[in-house]
Specification:
alpha/beta; two-stranded parallel sheet; 9 helices; globular
Length: about 240
């Protein structure tokens, strides 16, 4: 059963968080669950441009979107807010928006900006603080290849230190021709995370048509997220 609120974070930026969020949303919608997506801070997008929530809705289908703040420069939210002369989002703001959305929707997905400890504000508030306020688990999106183990290990240690649950890890962009490191990481990622590997989304999935994306999403995510992906079978097939 998918938790009511899931925080989608990553070990960095541009690693597939939005596509993973869309896949989770698509599977929930296929089960008849009403989905809200909260984006506390959208950076690097102009006022009239589609943001990450728009991309989730395009791929997954209609979702209730809540974007608390938008800053034009592609920077950490605290820095982008300061440079724009705009108010920063605070962890409590995000938590309150999520709690409100959860009243009316069966699943609320909260997509962060960058990694777990990227600053929302100049006081040092982060997505981890929002997760703690909500007592909500984190779904961690990670790259496939060399270097990912360190980022996952660090993030998992921070979550444990803060008493925040780690739901599992999803590889955000699984390559068509995985190298040795990527294949070995299928075994090593859950070991260093202390949490299961819950999926592998193929590279280029965000470029699929919405109909194909929704039809194939169940092949990329484990039953805990509403899909049918099997970590052991996937690792065997990957070699």
């Amino acid at each position: 059963m998918t938790p009511e609120v899931v925080i989608v974070s990553g070990t960095g930026t541009e690693i597939g968080k939005t596509v993973v969020t869309a896949a989770v949303a698509a599977l929930a919608r296929a089960r008849g669950v009403s989905v809200a997506v909260v984006k506390p801070a959208q950076t690097g997008v102009g006022p009239d441009e589609p943001g990450d929530i728009g991309e989730v809705a395009r791929l997954a289908g209609p979702v209730h979107g809540v974007e608390l703040a938008r800053y034009p420069e592609p920077l950490a939210p605290a820095t982008a807010a300061r440079r724009a002369g705009a108010p920063a989002v605070r962890p409590r703001d995000a938590a309150d928006a999520v709690a409100k959305a959860a009243v009316e929707h069966g699943l609320v997905l909260v997509e962060g900006a960058g990694g777990l400890l990227v600053r929302f504000d100049d006081d040092g508030g982060t997505l981890a603080d929002t997760a703690a306020l909500l007592d909500a688990p984190v779904l961690l999106v990670a790259p496939a290849g060399l270097g990912t183990l360190n980022g996952v290990t660090l993030t998992a240690e921070v979550l444990r230190a803060r008493g925040v649950g780690l739901l599992g890890v999803v590889v955000g962009s699984w390559p068509g021709c995985p190298d040795l490191a990527a294949r070995c990481n299928l075994t090593d990622l859950p070991a260093v995370a202390g949490a299961p590997l819950l999926g592998a989304v193929p590279e280029g999935a965000g470029g699929l048509s919405p109909a194909v994306f929704r039809r194939r999403a169940a092949d990329w995510l484990a039953p805990e997220l509403g899909g049918r992906w099997d970590a052991a079978a996937f690792a065997t097939a990957a070699g």
